Amino acid sequence: MSKRLGKGLDALIPSLAINDDDKVVEIPLSQLRANPYQPRKSFDDESIRELAESIKQHGVIQPIIVRSILKGFEIIAGERRFRASQYCGNATIPAVVRNFTDQQVMEIALIENLQRENLNAIEIAVAYQGLMDQFSLTQEELSMKVGKSRSHIANFLRLLQLPEEVKDNVSRGTLSMGHARAIAGVKDTATVKELAKLTIENEWSVRELEEAIQKLDTKGKDRAKPKTKKKDPYIDGVEELLRERFKTTVKIKHNKDKGRIELLYYSKQDLERLLEMLQ
User: pTM here?
Assistant: First the structure.
């Protein structure tokens, strides 16, 4: 197997490459089922609609890859094309039928998931852990399989030890991978949560967070006492009102008699919700 993830899944797993000698058949959508080992359980509705529009105009350009099962076929690669074809109301989809073992199917699904450009750090960590669990791999073996350094693998896996609310902030993008890596080195759960909260509220850079961690009591109290920015009680009150009104994080940057108000959103749908409220 190739040690690089940047050339597409067919470069990593040659058996997924489609060539001119392959027989492409039209398979009824009703006979297809999704890959049960697919780590990604949700698909972006907007991207599926966009792909469906392309399929309406040009058809399915790249056949999906399936394997034969007892009652029909199982999708190995191409679930987005399958879903978009369903959205279009198509009856069939072009496909190439291949033979794969259960282990190969699991491996393909997990590695394909790692190649998605929009994966957040937690999803990557979960995919790495999935590969290790399914195939009894060490971190060193996994690093060779996916073409990443062992330290890269270890840094991501450490994120899975973070409290759920902190992992949620990493998934939503309110904490960066750099922030998460720094916080993951703190043992006390309460301190981890406090540091995450302060990082978001004060918009700390990774360096500022690391400086706060360095100020932790080295005698075992493991509690952070970073300096927080003093804010006008009136501004605090306005922020709280706006947070309740818009149901999102609100930040007011105030300087004398002028400033700005920031409303944070975490998805396109969230942005549309805020725009409707503002209108």
Answer: 0.53
pLDDT tens-digit readout, 213-242:
888 754 455 455 555 556 677 777 788 788
- All residues at 6 or more sequence positions from 224 whose CB lies less than 8 Å from its CB, including other chains: 191, 194, 195, 198, 212, 213, 215, 216
Strands 32-33 and 72-77: parallel
Q: Active-site residues: which are they?
A: 79
d(CA 69, CA 95): 14
Q: How far apart are CA 17 and CA 269, in angstroms?
A: 36
CA 65 – CA 59 distance, rounded (Å):
16
Decide the pairing of beta strands 64-69 and 92-97: parallel
Give how far Cα 9 sits from Cα of 82, 116, 211, Å: 18, 10, 41
- What is the rounded CA–CA span in Å between residue 261 and residue 198? 19
Cα–Cα dist 185/37, whole Å: 32
Please give the structure tokens belonging to residue 180: 């998460």
For CA atoms 184, 189, 191, 196, the dihedral sign is: positive
Q: Helices 121-135 and 150-158 sit at what angle, rounded to 10 degrees? A: 110
Which H or E run includes 74?
Answer: strand 72-77
